[in-house]
Amino acid sequence: MGFDYAIVHVKYTIPPAVLLTLLYRPLFTKLDVFKVSFLVTVAVLATLPWDSYLIRNRIWSYPSHVIAGPTFLDIPLEEVFFFFIQTYNTSLLYLILSKPTFQPVFLRPARSSQMPWKYHRIAGQLFLLGATLWGWRRVHENGCGTYTGLIVVWAAPIVLLQWTLAYQFILGLPLTNTILPIALPTIYLWAVDTLALRRGTWVISADTKYGVNLWDGLEIEEALFFLVTNTLIVFGQLAFDNALAVLYTFPTLFPNPPNLPSPATLMRALLTSPTKYDGARLAGLQDAVQRLKRKSRSFYLASSTFPGPLRTDLLLLYSFCRVADDLVDNAATAEEAKEWISKLHEFLDNVYSDSKSSRSSMATIHAYFPPNTRSALVQLPVAKLPRQPLQDLLRGFEMDLAFNNLSPINSEGDLRLYSERVAGTVAQMCIQLVFHLYPSTLTPSKQRKVVDAGNRMGIALQYVNIARDISVDAHIGRVYLPLDWLREHGLTYKEALEHPSDARMERLRTRLLENAFSLYEGARAAIESLPVEARGPIRVAVESYMEIGRTLRKEGYTVKAGRATVPKWRRLMVAWKTLNRRTD
Ligand SMILES: CC(C)=CCC/C(C)=C/CC/C(C)=C/CC/C(C)=C/[C@@H]1[C@@H](COP(=O)(O)OP(=O)(O)O)[C@]1(C)CC/C=C(\C)CC/C=C(\C)CCC=C(C)C
């Protein structure tokens, strides 16, 4: 009896598990727990009979002085624990590395005659079939290729199934989602194995191995075993995510998908032919991701912390708000801007009208809006959003048009109304989307209170936005600071437009930021009443933006294109701290 194998765990497998858990803990959703538990269960169940066979046939063995003693199906418990912890560690690494990627946009729609990567699929299948036959022969020969053959015969059919179901996803995703989560734990386990074998923790029988080392101390069979098992785990995660992407991306194929889908539902999603994928929806999502990436670094970072289906809806909402705002802002004349707003109102009339068909809405979109904006309108998740905040948002844009050598913002009340319309509404819609996806246990009146707090938070964010953009806005003939504030500081509207960096304007910026932070302080506790899946991500979205306000309050901040910017490393720090923090 000994503890060498247990010490390998204490030294090499448990510390990464703790580290990865701490890193991913704030983002760990119920769906992640379900996914990891499912894979761990499958991995342990699939490995036990195989490993038991290997041990009983003395392909490998454990000297009695290195294991504690208890076994299950002749497998030392330390080894059973290894299957569990390896699957857990590799799965968590995959979850962390794949988090920044919005995976649904890597689904490929296909026409029946033209399956993307058809030949890659066939080549992969032939290779894995060939490998299985090759392994089978090595096992039958019962010579030095036996152990390799047993690894291949056991793993290749499972990889073949995973490949057949998810090859498009596997081939399309960035390498950070595929090769990297396989390579990192494999190399790590190769290093651990080198140390363990050198110390004789486990021994491979000389008769059933090739006797070839990848490097001194690492047998080729062991190297293959870790590579193959990590591939099984990551491909398992990818197949699972492929199913989730199909399930949550195509409401016409899967209306109201459950938050925790059953294996049967997942299989149905995986078996859905790519010819049925809605190409327009995928294009809309791709446009939305690119739009967010280009236009808002704060919300782009925050978006990756949201769970999949909520991320989809928020991206589509962002895309609509951005397109509408840009159409109005980039219009050459006030007349043109007004026309865009009335077209957008007509769009809302159409999509919220019971009597108009979706075909007539599409016709309006095609007749009125430029091609590069259409996907944002078509994909707006209207079924999950009330009409009122969208309409108020357009009324906020209308207020922008009233700037004409004059300002429509006379008082602090006007500023608040404007900010409520352009940003309070956005916050209300974000919360509606959260409640739609993750039904809350709060009473309707408490839910309304949360929406009200969200509204105030939206106003706070808009104040920060205005404080950041004083110079940029002055260049386009707008000063959003209330006229009575300007008067209190002896400034006329014209002076404020011409001298946005005047010391008095700086004092007004400080006053606006104070208001922003006081609204923020009053509203932030309500985030903790949101469904648990949304709390951390909403905190990140809010804090990443408020960090711009904190930067503006410090002296000597960096300005890019006339705007204060927060360096990437600081945005990441804020996101990380925020995810781990709780407001009281
Ligand atoms: C994570 C993610 C994808 C979030 C998307 C949020 C979203 C839908 C944002 C829409 C943004 C937008 C283009 C709106 C049009 C009107 C506008 C310009 C509003 C200002 C945004 C600033 O964006 P940006 O800096 O890119 O704008 P400009 O370059 O100046 O054009 C706003 C400041 C509004 C943003 C407000 C929110 C995102 C609301 C945040 C509040 C919550 C999520 C609720 C908090 C909940 C509680 C309970 C307190």
Automatic annotation (TrEMBL):
<feature type="transmembrane region" description="Helical">
    <location>
        <begin position="148"/>
        <end position="166"/>
    </location>
</feature>
<dbReference type="Pfam" id="PF00494">
    <property type="entry name" value="SQS_PSY"/>
</dbReference>
<comment type="similarity">
    <text>In the N-terminal section; belongs to the lycopene beta-cyclase family.</text>
</comment>
<dbReference type="InterPro" id="IPR033904">
    <property type="entry name" value="Trans_IPPS_HH"/>
</dbReference>
<dbReference type="GO" id="GO:0004311">
    <property type="term" value="F:geranylgeranyl diphosphate synthase activity"/>
</dbReference>
<dbReference type="GO" id="GO:0016872">
    <property type="term" value="F:intramolecular lyase activity"/>
</dbReference>
<dbReference type="InterPro" id="IPR019845">
    <property type="entry name" value="Squalene/phytoene_synthase_CS"/>
</dbReference>
<keyword id="KW-0413">Isomerase</keyword>
<dbReference type="GO" id="GO:0016117">
    <property type="term" value="P:carotenoid biosynthetic process"/>
</dbReference>
<keyword id="KW-0812">Transmembrane</keyword>
<keyword id="KW-1133">Transmembrane helix</keyword>
<comment type="similarity">
    <text>In the C-terminal section; belongs to the phytoene/squalene synthase family.</text>
</comment>
<dbReference type="GO" id="GO:0051996">
    <property type="term" value="F:squalene synthase [NAD(P)H] activity"/>
</dbReference>
<feature type="transmembrane region" description="Helical">
    <location>
        <begin position="173"/>
        <end position="191"/>
    </location>
</feature>
<keyword id="KW-0808">Transferase</keyword>
<dbReference type="InterPro" id="IPR002060">
    <property type="entry name" value="Squ/phyt_synthse"/>
</dbReference>
<feature type="transmembrane region" description="Helical">
    <location>
        <begin position="6"/>
        <end position="24"/>
    </location>
</feature>
<dbReference type="GO" id="GO:0016020">
    <property type="term" value="C:membrane"/>
</dbReference>
<feature type="transmembrane region" description="Helical">
    <location>
        <begin position="80"/>
        <end position="98"/>
    </location>
</feature>
<dbReference type="GO" id="GO:0045436">
    <property type="term" value="F:lycopene beta cyclase activity"/>
</dbReference>
<protein>
    <recommendedName>
        <fullName>Bifunctional lycopene cyclase/phytoene synthase</fullName>
        <ecNumber>2.5.1.32</ecNumber>
        <ecNumber>5.5.1.19</ecNumber>
    </recommendedName>
</protein>
<keyword id="KW-0125">Carotenoid biosynthesis</keyword>
<feature type="transmembrane region" description="Helical">
    <location>
        <begin position="36"/>
        <end position="55"/>
    </location>
</feature>
<keyword id="KW-0472">Membrane</keyword>
<comment type="pathway">
    <text>Carotenoid biosynthesis; beta-carotene biosynthesis.</text>
</comment>
<keyword id="KW-0511">Multifunctional enzyme</keyword>
<dbReference type="InterPro" id="IPR017825">
    <property type="entry name" value="Lycopene_cyclase_dom"/>
</dbReference>
<dbReference type="InterPro" id="IPR044843">
    <property type="entry name" value="Trans_IPPS_bact-type"/>
</dbReference>
<dbReference type="InterPro" id="IPR008949">
    <property type="entry name" value="Isoprenoid_synthase_dom_sf"/>
</dbReference>
<comment type="pathway">
    <text>Carotenoid biosynthesis; phytoene biosynthesis; all-trans-phytoene from geranylgeranyl diphosphate: step 1/1.</text>
</comment>
